[in-house]
Specification:
With 416 residues, the protein is mostly beta strands. The protein has one domain: Beta Barrel (Porin). Helix content is 7%, strand content 60%. A 14-stranded antiparallel beta barrel has the order 1-2-3-4-5-6-7-11-12-13-14-16-17-18. A hairpin with a 6-residue loop joins strand 3 and strand 4 (136-158). It is elongated and about 80 Å long. The relative contact order is 0.18.
Amino acid sequence: MNRFFLIFFFFSLSLSSQKLSYSPYSYFGAGDKGFTSTAENQMMGGLLVYYDSTHVNLNNAASLSKLKFVNYNLGIDIKSNSFKNNSINEKSTAAGLKYISVSIPTKVFSFSFGLKPDTSVGYYLESNDNTKTIAELNRFEGDGGINNAFLSVGFEILKNWGLGISSSYSFGNINHYHSKFLEDIELYTKVSNESSLSGLNVSFSSVFQTKISEKLTLKTSLNYSQDSKLKSKNNQSISTLKQDGSYGGDIEQSDLDVLGLKQTTFLIPSSISYGLGIGQDKKWFVGMSLKNQNGGGFENQIMNLDNVEFKSSKLYSFGGFYLPKYDSFTSYLNTITYRFGVRYESGGLYVNGHQINDFGINFGLSLPLANLSSANLGFEIGQRGTNSSGLIKENYFSLKLGFSLNDLWFIKSLYN
């Protein structure tokens, strides 16, 4: 048990300093809102409705009501992107820890705690303007993101009905830099916008399952997340630097108090999710889910972007799994769980009047280990954005590696 906590502790220390995104669309709002779920759920298109006694659904606290084992969850994501429009064709790669959690059942309820990134910022863009008397180069860079430390509790109020509540503390830093270089001039100017964000969020959830035949089980899920108002402490500076990056002689701090921007509120709008699925226990499952998120949030006031809107969005997920024979002693391949899914997010971010949609195809394997644990290997192929109006179409490939490790140490101690 102690070795698991040591591993989780050291991984959690590195989570806040990583970069999970390298995308021009992370320039807007709070960055990429990458869907954070376990590798198993991501391989099923981010399906929200599936849960059982040995797996944890990080996005539905009520699913903890079915947990029977102490569970340690760890996920890593490696993402390769290519960006295209009429004038550019670039590639990038980003990697990092996707989530980390510990879930513990007791006689009365189950609880889970952990850390996961909510958003990630990472981009590097350049544009040349040769129409002016002195040609200029504009460089835009960004990094940071918002992390989420959560505590969830789930309990069963009836045999087939569970309720849950999750509270979380969001925190992080988001930094945007704009540098302007003039041809044949040694010095250049750099505008730095830096924000430190923090705030609380609460969500409520419910799960219900019932037998509809001797073999088939129907599962449903419901999750509601309240508005989250993050406090943003902002700082803006304008500096003069040399081309080699050394100090050029002048740094000026902007008086954001006069502009009413020293401390602002960053709104993450409320959302509600529904899920429905059907399957045969330890054999197969197929389901779908829908997440609706209200608009009007995600505005980074210090950036003051006129061509950007954040409207309501919908996330559609469809997926499932197939397990040939979970108790096979003659073929390891028959004990592997084969997972598949698709997801489509419409709405949300609008740039220059164009809706930035996101579509992904997911698939992968859950490889059984001892004590009902598993190693999970998943893949996602997707596309986001458009080439219209000078925007960028983004194609990506993602490798997902996760470990779901089960233990009995806490349960045993209850009976000793």
